[in-house]
Design brief:
MetI-like fold, two-stranded antiparallel sheet, 2 strands, 70% helix, transmembrane helix, transport, cell membrane, membrane, MetI-like
Length: 384
């Protein structure tokens, strides 16, 4: 098992390389980079100010937007544009041979030189090995500081949602398998299908309307993960306040994962119940409970455990962006969405790197759990 885990860990390196290469290539083909975003903002601010000043007195225009020296009226200067490219890592400052001063674009002996995309990619990977994701274009913090600040929110939502999905779906799936074909199985299947068909964001809005003061009851808070006075609360008060805030987002993110896991558990148990060893155990006089939980449970849980990475990652990646936006939760999903809209490349690639690393590690942990549940599984022998 140790050799298998080592091989899986080594495979993380080329897998992450492929993820970052594809993401970097696609991002560079998308029109409207960060420089264009800044230019559009400057031009948009200038147009807004020009419209506002147009409604004032004529004398106010002197020295204002109509002044040729005003930066917004004449756009971004080439020198400022080159400086932005250097700051964002698209160019570097190159000075003439023999220059001994500090490299500066204001010096006539220095100029900006474009860095090829392939070279920027390998420079980025060199920094990522040490978890140095650079600095955000639009935030004072580094990307690592932003990720460390937002990651606990997203992981907290993902773990609570996955735990709730398993606590509901496993007992319900076992019950449905034991009572297969009964009215209980029929109406619970209908409820599960309806739950699966409801989009997560629509269910989140419904929960807000019903329980967050939308139109009916104001039982849970509308936004945030903690109250404003959370720091002054006792330990017990902090725990209650945290659970109070996370209840609605967790339920909204659980809805689709719970439905899938329930049907998976039911089908897995049905498949095991019809096998020969179950009939043999019953013929020996073992109670139905002993047969179900002493023999069937371990074998049936294998496929459910195998579905843990997909369930966790589906909740963590698929629903987190929408739910975090609706409930104003400052997590990693919302950060990645805002970074994509702003073309904030360091944040985009930093969050992708973290997402990819988490997904690969969760997959390895799933295989380890396989062996803990059923020691008969030997991944090394199967690979051989």
């Amino acid at each position: 098992m140790g050799a298998y885990i080592l091989r899986r860990l080594l495979l993380v390196i080329p897998t992450l390389f492929g993820i970052m290469l594809i993401s970097f290539t696609l991002t560079n083909f998308v029109p409207g980079g960060p420089i264009e975003q800044i230019i559009a903002r400057v031009q948009g601010d200038a147009d807004s100010l020009r419209n506002i000043s147009g409604g004032g007195d004529a004398g106010q225009s002197q020295g204002g937007l109509d002044d040729p020296g005003y930066q917004g009226a004449r756009g971004i200067s080439p020198q400022l544009l080159h400086q932005l490219e250097v700051q964002m890592g698209f160019s570097r400052i190159v000075c003439a041979d023999g220059f001994t001063g500090t490299p500066d674009l204001g010096n006539p002996a220095c100029h900006a030189e474009k860095i090829p995309a392939w070279k920027r990619f390998f420079i980025m990977l060199g920094h990522y090995v040490t978890f140095d994701f650079g600095k955000s274009f639009y935030h004072p913090q580094t990307v690592m500081q932003l990720v460390a600040e937002k990651l606990p929110v997203s992981i907290s939502l993902g773990l609570w949602s996955t735990l709730l999905a398993y606590l509901i779906s496993i007992p319900l799936g076992i019950r449905k398998a034991v009572r297969n074909g009964t009215p209980f199985d029929t109406w619970t299947s209908a409820a599960v299908i309806v739950a699966y068909a409801i989009p997560g964001f629509l269910f989140a809005v419904l929960l807000m309307v019903l329980f967050a003061g939308g139109s009916y009851w104001k039982i849970f808070p509308l936004r945030g993960l903690t109250s404003d006075d959370w720091a002054t609360m006792t330990t017990w008060g902090k725990a209650v306040d945290y659970l109070w805030h996370i209840t609605l987002p967790t339920i909204a993110m659980t809805i689709s994962g719970f439905a899938t896991m329930t049907l998976l558990t039911k089908n897995s148990f049905l498949d095991e119940i019809n096998k020969q060893y179950v009939m043999t155990a019953r013929a020996k006089g073992l109670s139905e409970r002993r047969v179900l939980y002493g023999h069937v449970f371990r074998n049936a849980m294998l496929i459910v455990i195998a579905g843990f990475p997909a369930t966790f990652l589906g909740v963590f990646f698929g629903s987190s962006i929408i739910v975090e936006t609706i409930f104003s939760l400052d997590g990693l999903g919302l950060l990645g969405f805002q970074a994509a809209a702003e073309r904030n490349y360091p944040v985009i690639f930093g969050t992708l790197y973290v997402f990819g690393l988490i997904s690969l590690v969760v997959g390895i942990l799933s295989d380890i759990t396989y062996v803990l549940v059923d020691p008969r599984i030997d991944f090394e022998r199967r690979e051989g």
